[in-house]
Design a protein that fits this description.
The chain is 83% helix and 0% strand. The chain has one domain. By secondary structure, it is mainly alpha-helical. Helix 2 crosses helix 8 (172-198), helix 3 (38-47) runs antiparallel to helix 7 and helix 5 packs antiparallel against helix 7 (137-167). It contains 12 helices and no strands. It has helices at residues 2-24, 26-36, 38-47, 60-89, 94-117, 128-131, 137-167, 172-198, 200-207, 214-253, 255-267, 272-304.
Length: 305
């Protein structure tokens, strides 16, 4: 009896040691994964601020918090378990699902670009009066949050998929720990920075008050003057990021285009910055073309219905 108990305790001790070793590997895996998804994180950071532009400044942080909360819940409750389940039962399904998300990003990016250059949109026989819809600020806020969460869901899915691919050969405990850590870290980092960006003008106004030193007032004034331009530029970057990331997701799912991207990077390997820029521009242009094709298909289906 005593021998059996000692054997059981030895087994438990060995299991604890294995679990501890797995957990010790978590920080390294988180750092490795964060480096791989840095491009998507930048894209997510650039996309989000445009969703609060034009809304009540007093509601900006509340809106950012709503988006961040739903983003974290999506990563932890929806996407991470889905990646683990698909990775175990149907690993072949992950790439097609991500490609569908990439196609949606291309479509949404094209819509943004089209709206920049076209003042009026034809809508299949509807009158101009029917195109105008008056909504309340609360409804606009709700629509913005919904749109932001929808876009974030696709970017988050790519982050989770890359995270899973990094730890797919690790123990299940390590997979879960790394995916949770990456989800929390990236969400806090992205939306913390976004909150700082959208409130920078308020910080500038505070610094520009008369009771501060002349240098501080000058810095505050320049911040206030610069932020509208910066937010406008960030909106363009966010739109380009949708096209770039969406097309790159699709390209990596097709052997021919994935090989072409790798060849492009290899050809410019001696100039890393130029290689990155060339690939980003190629993906953005491809995403714009694909988005235009999808928009035509959607428009045709809507008219047919």
């Amino acid at each position: 009896m005593a021998t059996g108990l000692l054997a059981l305790l030895d087994d438990i001790s060995a299991l604890v040691k294995v679990s501890a070793a797995s957990l010790d590997d978590v920080p390294a895996q988180v750092a490795k994964t964060t480096g791989k998804v840095s491009g998507i994180v930048i894209d997510d950071t650039a996309v989000t601020p445009k969703y609060v532009v034009g809304l009540d400044p007093s509601r900006e942080l509340s809106i950012i918090f709503q988006i961040a909360k739903k983003s974290l819940l999506n990563k932890v409750i929806l996407l991470s378990p889905a990646a683990l389940i698909l990775g175990f039962y149907a690993p072949w399904a992950i790439t097609p699902i991500l490609m569908l998300g990439g196609a949606f990003l291309c479509f949404e990016g094209y819509e943004k670009v089209h709206s920049m250059f076209a003042r009026h949109h034809a809508d299949g026989g509807h009158s101009a009066e029917e195109d105008v819809k008056i909504i309340t600020p609360a409804e606009l806020e709700k629509a913005r949050v919904k749109s932001a969460v929808r876009t974030d869901l696709i970017l988050s899915a790519e982050i989770v998929a890359i995270t899973y691919s990094t730890v797919s050969e690790k123990a299940l405990l390590t997979q879960i720990a790394v995916m949770l850590a990456v989800a929390v870290f990236i969400t806090v980092a992205v939306y913390g920075f976004v909150g700082l960006v959208v409130k920078a003008d308020d910080i500038g106004l505070h610094m520009a008050k008369e009771n501060h030193h002349k240098t501080v007032r000058s810095i505050g004034y320049n911040i206030v003057k610069f932020m509208p331009l910066f937010l406008n530029l960030l909106g363009y970057v966010g739109t380009a990021a949708m096209l770039w990331v969406g097309a790159e997701i699709i390209a990596h799912g097709i052997p021919f285009t994935s090989h072409a991207l790798h060849e492009l990077e290899h050809a410019l390997a001696h100039l890393p910055a130029l290689a990155w820029l060339t690939k980003a521009i190629a993906c953005a242009v491809g995403g714009l073309i694909l988005g235009a094709l999808i928009e035509r298909i959607v428009h045709f289906v809507r008219r047919f219905r």
